[in-house]
Amino acid sequence: MSRESESLQGQVKELEQRLEDARARIPKHTPPTTLMAEIDEMEEELERLRALLKPKSVREQIAELEERLQDARARIPKHTPPAALMAEIDEIEEELAKLRSLPRA
Q1: Based on the structure, what is the number of domains in the chain?
Q2: 47 and 81 in one domain?
Q3: Is the dihedral of CA 97, 102, 103, 105 positive or negative?
Q4: Of the segments 22-31, 50-59, 88-97, which one has the largest average pLDDT value?
Q5: Computed over its alpha carbons, how large is the radius of gyration of the chain?
Q6: Which domain holds residue 80?
Q7: Buried b (16+ CB within 10 A) or exposed e, 25-36
Q8: Are 69 and 85 in contact (CB under 8 A)?
Q9: Residues 67, 49 within the same domain
Q10: Three-class secondary structure assignment of the chain
Q11: Chain-centre distance for alpha carbon 30
Q12: Pair (79, 40) in one structural domain
């Protein structure tokens, strides 16, 4: 196992512990928004670190992007779509096009 992989695994374990501790601090009623935001950030970072340990195949990446695109399109309101949402959809479509243009392995 490489040092980089060991380092990533250490980071994953540390983040999992921090996330578990943060979840244990959630009160039963009216959880603080700062705590929930902290948990969300840790979950995103954990997902990113795990992805580095196990890269996804092109097919898996395409499926994930298609799901994100479908979700983003479902959030388009009937009148005056938000510019940020349209930019997100454009980015997802561009990334999908790049992945679909890669040769199949």
Answers
A1: 2
A2: no
A3: negative
A4: 88-97
A5: 18
A6: 58-101
A7: eeeeeeeeeeee
A8: no
A9: no
A10: CCHHHHHHHHHHHHHHHHHHHHHHCCCCCCCCHHHHHHHHHHHHHHHHHHHHHCCCCHHHHHHHHHHHHHHHHHCCCCCCCCHHHHHHHHHHHHHHHHHHHCCCC
A11: 25
A12: no
12 and 38 share one domain: yes
Per-residue pLDDT reduced to its tens digit, 67-96? 999 999 999 998 898 998 999 999 999 999
pLDDT of residue 65: 92
Question: 95: which residues sit within 8 A by CB, 6+ positions away?
Answer: 65
What is the sign of the dihedral through the CA atoms of 12, 17, 21 and 23? positive
